[in-house]
Automatic annotation (TrEMBL), chains A, B, C, D:
InterPro entries: HotDog_dom_sf (IPR029069), PAAI_dom (IPR003736), Thioestr_dom (IPR006683)
GO molecular function term, any single one: acyl-CoA hydrolase activity
Designated name of the protein: Hotdog fold thioesterase
Species: Microvirga thermotolerans
Domain of life: Bacteria
Transmembrane spans: 69-95
Domain Thioesterase: from-to ranges: 55-129
Entry keyword set: Hydrolase, Membrane, Transmembrane, Transmembrane helix
């Protein structure tokens, strides 16, 4: 599988997400696309009240939402908004308690086929090297016109 | 593995979640514990703006948060709040697009050991029989005092 | 999703597997199709030397092979051998040590679409009610002629 | 998490597996430990008749067995045979059809705690760069004496 230049730039992807999925910013803009590359995307999720559990720990669901968004972003950036992928499955391993700071999610596509895309996501606390959460996911890609 | 009567009633569990995890109601009270039983819990998640994607579809992350809460609730109800379980892994299969209505999550523990609990969750649109989402999860149970 | 009568009987499915996948019997015939029904199959795997770990415990890989076969059988029985499904993903939870006896695997399809099938499998030791292993899997279904 | 030198060398690990798990070689010696490193192991599985499906394709169960062995090997090499890990869960994504040649599995531990170890495995056809199969797994580590 050859790695081609993505169909969308960071700015185009960011603008598309804002326009088509404004709900991800419900309660405050906390998701940011930092970089896109061939079969790759890096996102940042701010340390924000709406993502917290008591005691100030970022919640599991906040991390799961970030991982899903990061994989979706990598697919979208690569093929462009010609056919919108749908999540079919996701697996998460929660490895360490996150720090009280932003999370960085790096998603990488392991396979991008005509009908399915599979990728993995590594989530870390900003500035830290140990993994907080690891995920893999499969997305169904409808027929592209 | 014998199925014992849970350590907490529906009301006790609901009050505990409200007290210890008020963040789940951030933006509006949408999660409700409908029933608890031996190794079992049933929760309802309202069809609420904060859980939606454009077009009015309940989002994947909303369903993932519901599944995690339902499994956590089943464990907590069974053993009581003597040791709070921590999610170690979750796997989701998104099967069908949900209806524009509440979701019902039924969680069932497949194993409740001294150190780990494993359960599955079936999520359906209220009043419908087909599964919208199926999940399995593993939770780590700290040493119980 | 309506449950239709499967396209293949138990005997037809069993004969098809023997003919097209003789390798599953490499080292001894240990897999048996016991029953098929709408979106359902039940298989038995004998307690055989080739499936054991030291000490006589049935191995994880033996159980994983059984689960994959049970899901594949349920799909094949339902739609017939018009398009052969390919495993795209599998998740296993190993819950209890199996008994030194046969394993019974019951697979149930949660969704049977045009392009993907998703199912779950419950594996128990013959004669016992507690789950030994639980699995979910997704299979890709090629274009049907 | 600091990466320490493994407790076992490649030769020690290989000898231990041969001695304690002779069943993995049932039907022919096809698994080989090629390298161990901090939180890492690389294994090779030969292209052998017993691992094949009709048409000569390496089977899913053969790949699943290889992945489980590779993760187990990485854990064992790192902590030594003081407490033998038990597989609690595994998730597989089958990405591409393998080539008719040996498979190389590289396992990497994402977390090695006191009670649980989590790792991922990348499986490729020998000499090829594209992933054939990707897996993640969680292992329970009994109390170490």
């Amino acid at each position: 599988m050859t790695s081609h230049k993505p169909a969308m730039s960071r700015e185009e992807l960011s603008a598309f997400l804002d326009r088509e999925f404004p709900q991800i910013h419900f309660g405050g803009r906390t998701y940011h696309v930092e970089e896109v590359g061939p079969l790759f995307a890096r996102l940042r999720m701010d340390y924000h009240e709406r993502h917290l559990r008591p005691g100030g720990t970022l919640s599991g669901p906040a991390m799961m939402g970030l991982a899903d968004l990061a994989l979706y972003a990598a697919i979208l950036a690569q093929i462009g908004p010609v056919a919108l992928a749908v999540t079919t499955s996701l697996t998460f391993n929660f490895l360490r308690k996150p720090e009280p700071r932003a999370l960085i999610a790096e998603s990488r596509l392991l396979k991008l086929g005509k009908r399915l895309a599979v990728g993995e996501v590594a989530i870390r606390s900003e500035g830290h090297t140990d993994l907080v959460c690891h995920a893999t996911g499969t997305y169904s890609i409808p027929e592209r016109r």
